Structures are given as C-alpha cells and as structure tokens.
Amino acid sequence: MPDLSGVPAVRPPLPGFQPHVGPRQMPYRLIDTVERSLTGVTGYGYGTSPIGHGREVLADADEMDARSTEFDLSLVTVPESFVFPDVAVGERWIRVDLSNQQVIAYEGIEPVRAFVVSTGLPSYPTVTGEFRIRMKVSEQIMSGDGYYLPGVKWVQYFYEDYGFHGTYWHEDFGVPKSHGCVNMTNADAKWLFDWAGPVWDQETVWFRPTAENPGTLVLVHE
C-alpha cells in the first residue's frame, strides 16, 4: 500500500466559505453536483490519492471495511468547561472532541459508543460549533486537481463541506490528517451513518433530512 501520509485527507472548502486557515485550492461545488445526480450517479469533490494510486488503494479497502477504532466508554472524558447541548431525554447526538481526536455518540447524557478519528490539520481546522446532519451520501467519488478517490463511503455532511466519512487511504487515526472532515474507518462511519438521522432508506445515494426525519445534532469542540 503506498505511503499517502503527505497527501491531504479531504477536499478544501467550497467557494464562498473560508473557515480554513491556509491556501485554498481549486473550488468545486461538491454538494451541488450530488444534488444534480437525479439518477443516482455519485458526485465529485476533492480526493486524497494521486492519480494512478486510487485503484491500488481501493483494492485494500475491503480488508479495512471491518476495522474499528472503537474504545471503552469508561475512557471517555468530558472537559470541565463543556456544556451539554439542550437535548431531550434519550435524544441521539454526536460529540466531536478535537483535542482527543474522538467521536462519541450519545443518547441523552449517556455515551453509547466512542471512536478514535482524524480531524483537520492545523492549517485546515475542523469547524467548531453546534450543527445538524444536513446531507448524507452513501458512496461517492472524491477527486480534484491531481487526485482521484473512488468509493468514499458513508458521508454525512453537518456544515457546508464538513462531514464524517469512511477512510481507506490511511490508518493513522488519533492524529489530525484531513482538510477539515472527520475521517473514520469504514466500519465506524457505517455504524454512525446508520445510527444518526436522517434515517437512510437503504436505496437513495444522497438524501437530506426532513421535518419528519430530522438530522442528528453534532457538537464539535476543542
């Protein structure tokens, strides 16, 4: 498997949105492209594998599909200054802990599963704040100027082009690696995709929440 440690993990921000610190690259409306794919064709965005490496890396993806970084809930910590969101009893929500590179799934105030992840590099920090899942894509191509990544799975956008997604091009979880997204193993991303709202119909490649099928709350903090 090629060493892609020096290759950015996801695409830079979309045009008109500049939360990242650092140079911008070629703008591309990833979400617009997906929304125009009425026949179920996957969308395009920014990838992390040099041309010629994408298929080679993808060949190892099946072996990584079952891998997980889940850890014992007894090891979950909460900063003293942390304020829990105003959620209903048993309501599902997701906490992204940037300092510890962790994603914790909650029901009410009780954590139910926790994973080690990779978030944005210092020059491309993951956005912080309170959001909701705004779009899900079961699988898509991510490509850009000199990069091509087929088969990126279980994508959940929570703010502009920031989101959770499966990752097969690195296994270096626990340290920042991305251009702002939350990198997870495919198995962990799949679990979160199925657990969080909006509930997937098992057929649609991309879909948005509705009043009857809302997106799960996401809280990202340092």
Summarize the structure in words.
This protein is α+β, with helices and mostly antiparallel strands and 222 residues long. The chain has a single domain, classed as L,D-transpeptidase catalytic domain-like (Beta Barrel). 12% of the residues lie in helices and 27% in strands. The chain contains four helices and ten strands; from the N terminus they run αααββββββββαββ. It is globular, with a radius of gyration of 16 Å. It starts with 29 loop residues before the first helix and ends with a strand. The N terminus is likely disordered.
Give the mean pLDDT: 78
- Return the CATH class: Mainly Beta
CATH architecture: Beta Barrel
- Give the neighbour order of strands across the main sheet: 3-2-1-10-4
Head-to-tail CA distance between termini: 33 Å
Instruction: Give the tally of β-strands.
Output: 10
Helix/strand order: HHHEEEEEEEEHEE
Query: What class, by secondary structure content?
Result: alpha+beta
Low-confidence stretches: 1-59
CATH-wise, what's the superfamily?
L,D-transpeptidase catalytic domain-like
Radius of gyration: 16 Å
At CATH level 3, the topology is L,D-transpeptidase catalytic domain-like
Shape: globular
